[in-house]
Amino acid sequence: MSQRGDQPAEPVTAVTPRPVGRALLTQSWRDVTFLHWPVAPAAVAPLLPDGVRPDVHEGTAHVGLVPFRMHGLGFGRGPGLPYLGSFPETNVRVYGVDRRGRRGVVFLTLECARLLPVLGARAVLRLPYRWASMRRRAGRERDLLWTSARIGPRGRGRPATRIRVRVGERIAEPTALEHFLTARWGLHTAWYGGRTVYLPNAHGIWPLHRAELLECEEDLVAACGLPAPEGAPVSVLYAPRVDVRFGPPPAGGR
Predict the structure, then answer these.
(1) Cα separation of the two ends of the chain
(2) Can you give the pLDDT at residue 5?
(3) CB 32 within 8 A of CB 242
(4) What angle do CA 246, 39, 37 make, to 5 degrees?
(5) Is the pLDDT of residue 253 over 50?
(6) Please, which residues have CB within 8 angstroms of residue 23's CB and are 6 or more apart in sequence?
(7) Which chain regions cross the lipid bilayer (predicted)?
(8) How many CB atoms sit inside 10 A of residue 214's CB?
């Protein structure tokens, strides 16, 4: 729910409204596969950081299940880290608007196949990274298979996913919903001391493709505290690559 004095949500734009000058992190996202389902804003609201309200499209919030390959993760303008900077990842994400009206991603989990980046991101950026066993397999007819299983103590349920898609043609002009779900130029995260910070990012226009969902088995969304998705996703998209720069939090943290 918005509070008195909150600014309205900024427009959805295909390129960032906040260019990143000094880069905090650089990385490339490859084979990005977007699955999205509708979810009630009231279910999303309790999972958001302080000062962030659900972002909605035509009154509906959405949850995304997004596997992709992280490549060349590095600090500042330096080269990407060898080995540790490239790994498959699957995240569960929802969308929020902060009190300044900035739209952004809120990650509920980021399942990652490298333990050291998991530990570093949790400690430094306060992001909910978790160690998982992940694989990506490319098949015939532009099929992609993603599998993930969280690594944790024996005897406890370990959330897992199995997603197979077939990549289709490039989209000439994304719909309003497709722009809303992908054109996100920052993330909101709970910081030390209970503060909420916004980390801006910048990259080129998403080279989005249609995709067909061939298989989806997952219990990761429910493990994050949301209702398990019902039925087919309302949006299935694919992007081969974007090169991304994250900037530091704005002065004042918010």
Answers:
(1) 18
(2) 72
(3) yes
(4) 70
(5) no
(6) 76, 77, 245, 246, 247
(7) none
(8) 14
